[in-house]
Amino acid sequence: MKKIIVLLMALMVAVTTSADTQTTPVDTVDVVCYDLQLNTDFIGLFGMAYIFANNNDYKLTGAILADSIPPGTYTDCMMDLTHIATGKQIPAASVTIDLSVDKNRNCAIKGRMIGEDNILYNLDLSWQTPTTQDTVAIAFDKSSWAAYYPDLGHDFMLSNEDDNYDIALDIVQVPMGERFTEKNLNISYCRIANKQTQDTIKIAAAEGHVWQSNDTTYLSAIVTGFDSVMYDIQLWYAVPEITETVEVNIPNATFYNELASDGYYALVGTTTDKQYEFAISLLGNTEEDVPGTYVNDGLFGGFSGVGYDFLHFIGGQYTTYIAQWNADKKDYDIISVEKGEATVQMDEDQNVRLQGRFVGENGVEYKVTLSTKVDKPCIVDDSMEGAVDRVYEAGTQLTVEQQTEDKVLLEIMTDKDLLAMWLYVEYVDDKLVVPEGEYTIDDSGDYWSVIAADGSLGKTFYATHDGEYFTSFYFLVSGTVHIKHVDGQLHFEVNGYNSYDVPVHIVYAPTSTDIKDVDRLHMGCRKEIRDGRLVIHREGTAYNVLGIQE
Asked: Across all residues in the chain, what is the average pLDDT?
């Protein structure tokens, strides 16, 4: 079960030169910040170490361009200042910084930045805990929301809020009953927000304790903010007491097979009267792992992973929840599962039966009986219905690219859809590249085959779009493609199926003027999905699905 962090940083400048501009600065400003963050998580991927710092006047964002950053002097940097009062951005014209690290691995940066406003900014950036001038106690009379990720260093978070504060503390690598400091905080998921002042307080230091007593988990922490306030924070979590029991019988659930790809499978279904929906994600790597007893003990498995085989996380790929139909709003009310146990059985025909008891956040115990059958793996975002029967009319252009000695791409792109197929050819036809014959859609990599889809844009698929965003995908995993040569032109017919066994029938029968390109050994084309949009990179230039340069 993964939490994914996306770091988005907009730097408004290009790489600076190693020397200061020759113009004499018109002014000098000292920028002193005591909340320096030097993020090296992506240095191997992007060749950058990111710099973040703030004070009452300025917000600084920057990066050191390097494959590693030992202490020393750096001039290959990017940097951008924002003047908080005016919102004015000041990109750097040149930057020189000195990086130092003390024995406690605390970093400090001193240097100079000449902005494009021709002002010299003297930088003094470090991490220093401020002297506190006030103390605020924060406690809640209701159970917190809890999240637990045993495979991420036992990442554990409690969050709660009332009319005054919104609090979240996320700790990593802290055994139950042990103490922690700010070095154990997953700071990206920590939050101290004052609802009355609309301020979010940045954490400078913390010292706390996490423990359990009976059925309750406690997290107590003394947190020092960069606002010079000490926050005494008390959070707790307990599974709700059971107030009633409800029977939930689901005879025809869906089995989502992600065992081989992501280490889990999911069971999702509704009762015959549609009053209840149930979903659970269970851990495993092969179909042999399907049967067994799965437990969420409501106590986070003692931070051992034992007894914590499913999560009550709602959303994304990994989902466990109960949903009850709400007639007033004509939609389901989602109820998180706070505790539960399920036994899964599977017979020789791979019929699956689940029986379990689950306590919801509403205090209701749901006794669930569910039946389904092990399904083959399906591809995320693949269309679950809607058969395709597409005939490309005269005038539709086909692109043919011989990408390697034995691999050829056939691609059709129109103002409403896109077809891309990669074929392995035993030999290359002198004129039309792709020899006549029947090609099988599979993952064999053999001659006379079409590369089966895996959900990426480098494998065979058909998709519709609205000119900017995709509206449907059909990832072809089986079937045939029949190639013919007619009057010196390529013709083909696709009879395929996507991962949900939705049939896809496509015919291409061109006139003599329809072939757009026949490129041999063309290696300069790459596709990616960016924010739901297809972006095509060809010879260093990016285009959208309509061929318009990005």
From this structure: 85
d(CA 459, CA 454): 7
The H or E element that residue 100 is part of is strand 88-101
Q: What are 211-258's pLDDT values in tens digits?
A: 999 889 999 999 999 999 999 999 999 999 999 999 999 999 999 888
Q: What confidence tier does 466 reach under pLDDT thresholds 50, 70, 90?
A: confident
Give the pLDDT score at 9: 36
Residues 462 and 510 in one domain: yes
Strand order of the sheet with strand 191-194? 145-149, 155-161, 165-171, 191-194, 199-200
Q: What is the pLDDT of residues 90-118, one digit of tens each?
A: 999 999 999 999 877 789 999 999 999 99
Cα(455)–Cα(445) distance, integer angstroms = 17
* Spatial separation of the C-alpha atoms in residues 196 and 421, rounded to whole Å: 57
Considering only the C-alpha atoms of the chain, give the largest distance between any 2 of them, rounded to a whole number of Å.
87
The pLDDT of residue 310 is above 90: no
Together in a domain, 79 and 205: no
Answer yes or no: are the C-beta atoms of 501 and 375 closer than 8 Å. Answer: no
Domain for residue 548, yes or no? no
Domain that holds residue 271: 244-373
Three-state helix/strand/coil letters over 359-411: EECCCEEEEEEEEEECCCCCCCCCCCCCCEEEEECCCCCEEEEECCCCEEEEE
Residue 55 resides in a domain: yes
User: Is 70 in contact with 43 (CB distance < 8 Å)?
Assistant: no
- Alpha-carbon Rg for the chain, nearest whole angstrom, is 29
Query: Does 368 lie in the same domain as 261?
Result: yes
CB atoms within 10 A of CB 294: 21
CA proximity to 176, closest of 217, 144, 220, 215: 217
Q: Across-strand partners of 486?
A: 489
- Return d(Cα 507, Cα 482) in angstroms, integer: 10
Cβ contact 515:471 at 8 Å: no
For the chain, the straight-line distance linking the first and the last C-alpha, in angstroms and rounded, comes to 35
The answer to whether 363 touches 325, Cβ cutoff 8 Å, is no
Classify residue 446 by burial, with Cβ atoms within 10 Å: 0-12, 13-18, 19+: exposed
Q: Are 423 and 438 in contact (CB under 8 A)?
A: no
pTM of the model: 0.60
